[in-house]
Amino acid sequence: MKKSMLHLCTTGTGEEDFELNKDEPGMMLSSKNHIGGLEGTEDHSDGKVFALTKSPRCPVNTIKAYLSHLNHDIAVLFQRPRHPSSRFNPNKAIVWYEKNVLGHNMLNNMMRNMSQRAGISPYYTNHSLRATTVTVLSSNNVETQKIKAVTGHRSDTILSQFKQMSSTLS
């Protein structure tokens, strides 16, 4: 994924959100739920992240901060972080990332590694966060069709399985 695949938008009321730039070549990413090609299904999700203006953990501000510290010499979104040393101090440096892309294994294991460093047991995985999202949305009475649009699932059975797995993980 490239940095240019994220687009910062401002509504008429001045609210900001990030959305996926679907005009960017290669943006319609394939996954197990969106295989692409002639047989693929269209992605009906809007791919937006909305600001939470009163929150210190506003996702739009978090993405802006992340983007501001990326290495401008490469276009990729997920870059290898620089290690603090006598030559690199994150409190003083603008660029916090190397000119290297994060590898496939690093991205696949990112949630597990972060959970372990934070002392969370059992650790989270990328998949368990997705399952938890389904459970939270479902328990807050979000319509199944809307949940399926966000997750890319076509089957109600998958959603009930995710809900059961997430409850077990909780």
Mean pLDDT: 80
Q: What share of residues is helical?
A: 25-40%
Strand content: 5-15%
Question: Could you give the distance between the termini?
Answer: 31 Å
Q: Please summarize the sheet with the most strands.
A: 3 strands, antiparallel
Outline = globular
Query: Structural class, from helix and strand content?
Result: alpha+beta
Domain Tyr recombinase: 90-161
GO biological process, one term: DNA recombination
Pfam families: Phage_integrase (PF00589)
GO molecular function, one term: DNA binding
List keywords for this structure.
170 residues; alpha+beta; three-stranded antiparallel beta sheet
Q: Any overview of this molecule?
A:
The chain is 35% helix and 12% strand. The chain has a 3-stranded antiparallel sheet, covered by helices on one side. Strands 4-5 form a two-stranded antiparallel sheet. Helix 4 crosses helix 6. With 170 residues, it is α+β, with helices and mostly antiparallel strands. It contains 6 helices and 5 strands; from the N terminus they run βββαββααααα. The chain has a domain of 85 residues.
